[in-house]
Amino acid sequence: MIDRERELSGLTEKMSRSPITVIVGPRQCGKTTLARILPADNYFDLEDPRSLARLEEPQTTLERLTGTIVIDEVQRKPELMPLLRYLVDQSDQVRYLLLGSASPDLVGGSAETLAGRVSYHELGPFLQDEIDVVNWRNLWLRGGFPRSYLAPDDRASFLWREDFMRSFLERDIPQLGISIPAETIRRFWVMISHYHGQIVNLSELGRSFGVSDHTVRRYLDILVGTFMIRLLPPWYANVGKRLVKAPKLYIRDSGVFHSLQGISSHRLLEEHPKLGASWEGFALEQAVRLLGISDPYFWRTHTGAELDLLWFGRGKTWGMEFKYSDAPRISRGLRASMDDLQPEHVWIVYPGPEGYELDDRVSVIPLAKVAADIAGSVSHV
């Protein structure tokens, strides 16, 4: 089993200070495995008929229990949320750990219902510091879903992801009360994978798919809310520039992106025209999660200044670029963005083995060193 000590530590800390803790993240990313490491006094799995039967009269069942109570796949019974709020208000002898495969916003108001009583812990697929560092190329190709990454070979991994996406579309989406044909969402998902790493234009997507802007927005919200895509917002600043104001779209798991693009091997990835975009999306998702960036942005002006990732910490501005290159250099767009934003430091993340300095504010760094080197730099500012 892959050790996820950082995730376990963060989850334990949140459970110590909140009566209700919710682990959210995509299906099959390891939420149940993580939860079962912790001691629990009662465990309910809402995909288990026996658990569902026990919760036919939820108040009668739950109000007599104490200690830590785990409820898995909680998005299947959003009506439990008001009851849980009532129960934790009545007793300090109970803690709830809830596991869900959709964001609170998608599950119909659960965030508002539990306000002031809940902490959220987002769990995603494996990160590069959770695996043997020499296997990062397999993580890039296969993605971080445990069964995909740990498959015996690339073909088995590819087939697992195909089955995963089919199950997600045919079973998980309808369970959220969303009545859109699975094939429709599948075609939309494949279409937007061609926009991976690009600015989202709702009208263009709508014309390509033959639907309205409103429908495109709805489909995107579903895929965002189920942790399948990331819409990275632009940063606005009053610098007298014409700024790009639409978000960039990324398929969050690189393995899922490769499946949507029909990329099943390292050779096909190296030959694919989306190689650079694939690296950008993979490295960006890893960096955001490794560094715990809660509010990531990108920066782009209509005159060519751009920065792939922008965030703020300790009163300073930080940036990151992602380049699939043997020896990255400072591009004209990066130099212009530094003139506009005046960041404390910018790191260029690349697939090479060694880091090096380009100037006093720009460093090239391997992905494997992002967590240790960058987190250390920021934490000591």
Tally of discrete structural domains: 2
Strand order of the largest sheet: 9-10-11-12-14-13
Biggest pleated-sheet summary: 6 strands, mixed
Average of per-residue pLDDT values? 92
Question: Could you say which overall geometry the principal axes of the C-alpha atoms support?
Answer: globular
Q: What structural class results from the helix and strand content?
A: alpha/beta
Helix content: 40-55%
> Which residues sit in consecutive blocks of at least 5 with pLDDT less than 50?
none
Number of strands: 14
Beta-strand level of the residues, as a percent range?
15-25%
Distance between the termini: 36 Å
Rg measurement, Å: 22 Å
Count of helices?
A: 17
Description:
This protein has 381 residues and is α/β, with parallel strands linked by helices. It folds into two domains: 5-122, Rossmann fold, CATH 3.40.50; 128-379, no CATH class. It has 17 helices and 14 strands. Strands 9-10-11-12-14-13 form a six-stranded mixed β-sheet. A five-stranded parallel β-sheet has the order 2-3-4-1-5, sandwiched between helices. Helix 7 crosses helix 13. It is globular. The two termini are 36 Å apart.
What is the structure about, briefly put?
The chain has 17 helices and 14 strands. By secondary structure, it is an alpha/beta fold. The protein has two domains: 118 residues, Rossmann fold; 252 residues, no CATH class.
Can you lay out the helices and strands and say which pair or pack?
Elements: H1 5-17, E1 20-24, H2 31-37, E2 42-45, H3 49-54, H4 58-62, E3 67-72, H5 80-90, E4 94-100, H6 110-113, E5 118-122, H7 136-142, H8 146-149, H9 154-175, H10 182-193, E6 198-199, H11 202-209, H12 213-225, E7 229-232, E8 248-251, H13 254-260, H14 266-271, H15 275-290, E9 297-300, E10 306-313, E11 316-322, H16 332-341, E12 345-350, E13 356-359, E14 362-366, H17 370-379
Parallel strand pairs: 1-4, 1-5, 2-3, 3-4, 11-12, 12-14
Antiparallel strand pairs: 6-8, 7-8, 9-10, 10-11, 13-14
Helix pairs in contact: 7-13, 9-10, 11-12
